[in-house]
FA complementation group I
Amino acid sequence: MDQKILSLAAEKTADSLQAFLQTLKEEDLANLLQNQAVKGRAVGALLRAIFRGSPCSEEAGTLRRRKIYTRCMQLVESGDLQKETASEIIGLLMLEVHCFPGPSLVELANEFIAAITGGSLTNGKSLELFPIILTALVTKKGKLVCGKDELSGEECKKQLISTLCSGRWDRRYVIQLTSMFKDVPLTPEEIGLVMEKVLKMFSKLNLQEIPPLVYQLLILSSKGSRGKVLEGIVAFFNELDRQHRAEQSGDE
C-alpha cells in the first residue's frame, strides 16, 4: 500500500492520490505510517505523500490530515523512533501547521495542553510544534470556537495559554516549556501569566535545576516583565537563604 501511495504522489496532479486515500480507513493509514516510522523506512516520503493527498480545502482531507498529525505527535513522544526519523517527522509537521484551518489548530493546541497538564509527555520532543501551532492560530481570520466561547485567533491563543498556565506542569518539562514560550508571540498579559507560573515552579525543582531555568526565564523576560522576574528570582533565593540559616540555627 505504501508503494502505491508513493507512486501516485509522483504524478503531476494529486487527483489520483486523493481518490486512493479516500478508499482507505484513517486508522489503517495511520498504522501503516507508524509501522514504517518504527522500522525507519522512508517515512518522510510517505508522510509528504499523505499530506499532499489530504488538502484542507476538503473536509475529508482535513480529518485525515488531523488523524495523521496526531499519530505523528504520539510517535515522536513514544521514544520508539530513531533520532533521525523523529527529527524528520518534526520538520515535516512544522511545515504543515499553517495549512490547517483554525478549528483544527485549536484541537491540536488542546491536545498539547491535555498532554502537558495530564503528565502524559514522555520525552517532550513534540513540544517543538506547540509554539508554531499557537503562532499559526493568531493568523486565522474570523471567529473560532474555543471552549464555550467564539473568539478571534488572538483571543483563542490567550485563553489556551491561560488554561495551560492554570494546569499542572511536570517538573521534568518546566525548563523546556519556559524555553518554548520564547518562540510564541505574547502580549504583556500573557507574559505575566507565564512568568507567574514558572516562578511558582521554582520551589518544586531541585537546586541544580534552577540555574538553567533562570537562564531561560531571563531570555523570556526580554519580551517583558523583567522586573517581576528579577524580583521573583531574588525572593526565591532569599527564602532559600532564610531556610538554610534556620536549619543551621536548629543544628546548633
User: Anything to note?
Assistant: The chain has two domains: 1-99, 169-251. The chain has a mean pLDDT of 88.
